[in-house]
């Protein structure tokens, strides 16, 4: 048996098309484009690539992109001051501070400064709380993207056993909340979980978000399970190569023979992150302007 590949790249493309069409309607109704401000502190090469990509895709969807780059030496006061300015700017619907931040900046304080209704990353504790109690807010992009892929593949998730490996605020915890909302039976496994392979083996749905290359092995997976790989890990380069291979948290070559469906890395969950960010920005714009967005349109 070879698992069906869940094509996140194609799904993300479809989502961006929908966002683009609805962004045009929004601009006509509101008399302005929806706007996303992205803040990058420092020169981390991967972050630079992601920020460039966010800017390009925002513009391609017919929304306004505002890019703010601060040096790695920027003070907390500089960064918080910029966020306050963006909070007050009516042309900005969504604000995102690219993570990770340089060590001298307090990530929690920075996120807490973003106005919750412009927090399109869904990282603010107000949005985490809204998600926990099932209120409308913003849901972090990567787990929401995973949920979209799961529902597209499986339809109704009700009653399924789901294991989320990893308990980060950005992926693991919100992923567990989303699956619980879909009436899954959810287990959050982590570095202290006893008999992790045994726990994972019970799951109809496995979401791996630990940041450890190829950790989840074929003999951990129940036959036919759906496996979502959130990991993006660069292996050391092979002799003669300048870059190492990109792999997920799942041993793809082994697991694909056991699973029913699996996301590849690259081309699985990663592209969904930015597509959902654009979706969240457009939702924010509708809320900020009091323009209705048809339920389930995005
Ligand atoms: N403020 C935020 N910071 C970070 C987030 C986030 O959601 N908000 N997520 C990640 C980085 N990220 C977006 O910011 C991101 C990661 C990966 C991809 C992606 O498309 N990956 C490709 C592979 C890319 C490659 O070749 O390196 C894939 O998986 O196919 C998009 C966005 C951390 N920071």
Automatic annotation (TrEMBL):
<feature type="binding site">
    <location>
        <position position="232"/>
    </location>
    <ligand>
        <name>NADP(+)</name>
    </ligand>
</feature>
<dbReference type="GO" id="GO:0006164">
    <property type="term" value="P:purine nucleotide biosynthetic process"/>
</dbReference>
<dbReference type="InterPro" id="IPR020630">
    <property type="entry name" value="THF_DH/CycHdrlase_cat_dom"/>
</dbReference>
<keyword id="KW-0560">Oxidoreductase</keyword>
<dbReference type="GO" id="GO:0035999">
    <property type="term" value="P:tetrahydrofolate interconversion"/>
</dbReference>
<feature type="binding site">
    <location>
        <begin position="166"/>
        <end position="168"/>
    </location>
    <ligand>
        <name>NADP(+)</name>
    </ligand>
</feature>
<comment type="function">
    <text>Catalyzes the oxidation of 5,10-methylenetetrahydrofolate to 5,10-methenyltetrahydrofolate and then the hydrolysis of 5,10-methenyltetrahydrofolate to 10-formyltetrahydrofolate.</text>
</comment>
<dbReference type="InterPro" id="IPR000672">
    <property type="entry name" value="THF_DH/CycHdrlase"/>
</dbReference>
<dbReference type="Pfam" id="PF00763">
    <property type="entry name" value="THF_DHG_CYH"/>
</dbReference>
<comment type="subunit">
    <text>Homodimer.</text>
</comment>
<keyword id="KW-0368">Histidine biosynthesis</keyword>
<feature type="domain" description="Tetrahydrofolate dehydrogenase/cyclohydrolase NAD(P)-binding">
    <location>
        <begin position="140"/>
        <end position="288"/>
    </location>
</feature>
<keyword id="KW-0028">Amino-acid biosynthesis</keyword>
<comment type="similarity">
    <text>Belongs to the tetrahydrofolate dehydrogenase/cyclohydrolase family.</text>
</comment>
<keyword id="KW-0554">One-carbon metabolism</keyword>
<dbReference type="Pfam" id="PF02882">
    <property type="entry name" value="THF_DHG_CYH_C"/>
</dbReference>
<dbReference type="InterPro" id="IPR046346">
    <property type="entry name" value="Aminoacid_DH-like_N_sf"/>
</dbReference>
<dbReference type="InterPro" id="IPR020867">
    <property type="entry name" value="THF_DH/CycHdrlase_CS"/>
</dbReference>
<keyword id="KW-0521">NADP</keyword>
<dbReference type="GO" id="GO:0005829">
    <property type="term" value="C:cytosol"/>
</dbReference>
<comment type="pathway">
    <text>One-carbon metabolism; tetrahydrofolate interconversion.</text>
</comment>
<dbReference type="GO" id="GO:0009086">
    <property type="term" value="P:methionine biosynthetic process"/>
</dbReference>
<dbReference type="GO" id="GO:0000105">
    <property type="term" value="P:L-histidine biosynthetic process"/>
</dbReference>
<dbReference type="InterPro" id="IPR020631">
    <property type="entry name" value="THF_DH/CycHdrlase_NAD-bd_dom"/>
</dbReference>
<keyword id="KW-0511">Multifunctional enzyme</keyword>
<protein>
    <recommendedName>
        <fullName>Bifunctional protein FolD</fullName>
        <ecNumber>1.5.1.5</ecNumber>
        <ecNumber>3.5.4.9</ecNumber>
    </recommendedName>
</protein>
<feature type="domain" description="Tetrahydrofolate dehydrogenase/cyclohydrolase catalytic">
    <location>
        <begin position="6"/>
        <end position="121"/>
    </location>
</feature>
<keyword id="KW-0658">Purine biosynthesis</keyword>
<keyword id="KW-0378">Hydrolase</keyword>
<keyword id="KW-0486">Methionine biosynthesis</keyword>
<dbReference type="GO" id="GO:0004488">
    <property type="term" value="F:methylenetetrahydrofolate dehydrogenase (NADP+) activity"/>
</dbReference>
<dbReference type="InterPro" id="IPR036291">
    <property type="entry name" value="NAD(P)-bd_dom_sf"/>
</dbReference>
<dbReference type="GO" id="GO:0004477">
    <property type="term" value="F:methenyltetrahydrofolate cyclohydrolase activity"/>
</dbReference>
